[in-house]
Every structure is written in structure tokens, then in C-alpha cells.
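thread: overnight batch results

M.L. [08:02]
morning all. the overnight job finished for the chain we discussed friday. pasting input first so we're all looking at the same thing
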Amino acid sequence: MLRIAQMGVGPIGAAIAARVRRHPGMTLVGAADPALAGRPLDELLGVTGGGGLAVAPSIDDLLRRTPAEVVVHCAGSYLDVVADQLSPLLRGGVSVVSTCEELAYPVPLHPDAARRLDEDARAGSAVLLGTGVNPGFVMDKLVVTLMSACDEVRAVHVTRLVDAATRRVPFQRKVGAGLTREAFEERLRQGRFGHVGLPETAHMLADAMGLPPAREVRTTIGPVIAERAHESGAIPVQPGQVAGLEQSLVLEAAGVQRVRLEMRMAVGEPEPRDAVVIDGSPPLAMTVSTGVAGDEGTAAVVLACLPLVGALEPGLRTMLDVPIRPPWRG
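M.L. [08:03]
and the structure it wrote out:
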């Protein structure tokens, strides 16, 4: 029985923990979240019969009382913020599966932090894996899997369109739903706004294509302005307000465009979908109509990875290392 501890009990963390509770091969030993310390865990997970566990104030406090083999980490998107949370766990021999977006493929853009975490994990004979639905699956792992049917891949174009009304409230805030155009532009100037992990996704695809390390990456972000009222989401959007954002990335090598990633995440997006076009031999094109559900998909991908951690070599790992399969396969 795989013993799992949950770190961070926001909407995604709670969804993962609830699935761990239902899995016959896993035991949820507890959860930690300083913002929710003392709250009944059953209440946050929307379940009953959990033995009256309360949320611990810190993961250290939880693990002192009850050991775990793997910590599911859902407590931040940026590697410079979460690295200090992860190092003690890894050095102590506890593996970590994290939804930190910048951890999905950190070496090209965060080499120092990646090296340090890899050393910590190896020292503790632990595994550190960053994953999720995006990054982690839709725009990277799935695309690399499709590439394996090609003798050669010259270029990749991936499009993800998301109706933000179907996503959790923090996601709707993250894409700027309900803001004025001026407020959106101000948040953009302040930095750390929009989808996190797109550059990491691009470099994973580029490495899978075998491109040289000398690459030029250009990213653009802009608002999606609502033309009509949208009341379907938790954050109502009026005409003229921001419904979400458009974000694109182009990666070039030797002056040739090799990777293009495009996302539009907005309340009321009329045709959500995920699409992959591979210019290769043979050429491939695939569309997931309605798109992969982001919140449920993230929880499912994390759950699928948990039983596989023990089969990975200690150290920092990515989804390129994971032979992912449904979690009920064991």
C-alpha cells in the first residue's frame, strides 16, 4: 500500500487527495496546508469516513507524526518559490510528485535549481517529478508520444483552447477574467501573469526533436475582450471586460520555426479543443474535441504517476521518463 501525503489542499490538491483516498493501492496519511490548518480533511475533500484527520500546519509536522513514501506537492507554480519546500523532503528520502509548472522541464531555463534538486533527490534516494495536465500531458507528453510514429519531425504546432468558465476560480483569476483592459495590462507589466510552463513545454518538445541547445524563444500575451456578457463562470464577465487571455510561443533553431504553441483561455470560449499538427514523416494531425478537462485531467495524471515513482531512478525526472498508464493498472 503506497503511503501518500498531500501538501497544499486547494482545489487541485483536494481533487488529487480525494482520488488517492479512493484508490485501492494507496493510503492518504494526511494533508498539510498552513492556510487551512486544523480544518477537517473530510470536509475539504467532500467525503466521509476519513477517521477525523485534520489538516496539518506544515508538511514537516505531518511527516513527524506519520510517515509517507510520496508527497503530492500542490503549493506553487514557480520553481524559485517552491525549491526550498522540496529540498528537505528529498534529502529525507521522501519522493515528490509536484504540480509546479516550472518543474515540468526545468533544466534548460532553471539549471541551478534543477541541479540542486537533482542532487538532493539522489542523496535521499528519492524521485522528484513535475507533472499535470499542462504542462505534463496535453502539450508535451501527448505530443512526444505522437512524434514516436514519425521517422522525422521538422516542426510542431500545438493549440489549446479552454473555456475558463469550466475551471476553478483561481484559474479564472489567473487568466484575468473580469478585469478591465487597463487592469490586465498593469498585471502584465508586473510580471508573473498568464499560463506558467509554456517555455518549459517548448524546450521539452525541442529536446524530443533533437534540436541543438541554441534556440530563440518569443512569447506574447494579450487579453481576450468579451463581446457579450458571460454568467456561466464563477466570475461574471460583462461586454468590454477581459474574458481571459491569449498566449503564444514560437521557438526557432538556426532561424527556422520548429515549435509553435498557442493557447486561448477565456470565459465563454466557444470551441474548446486541443489540437496537434506535426510536420513530419509521416505528417500527423490530431484534435481532442472539447479539449482535455484541465482540473480533472491534472488530478488524473498525477494519480497515474504515483504508482510509477518507485520504478524511476532517483533524482529529478520529467514526463519523458515516465511510461504513463492508467492508475488502475497498478
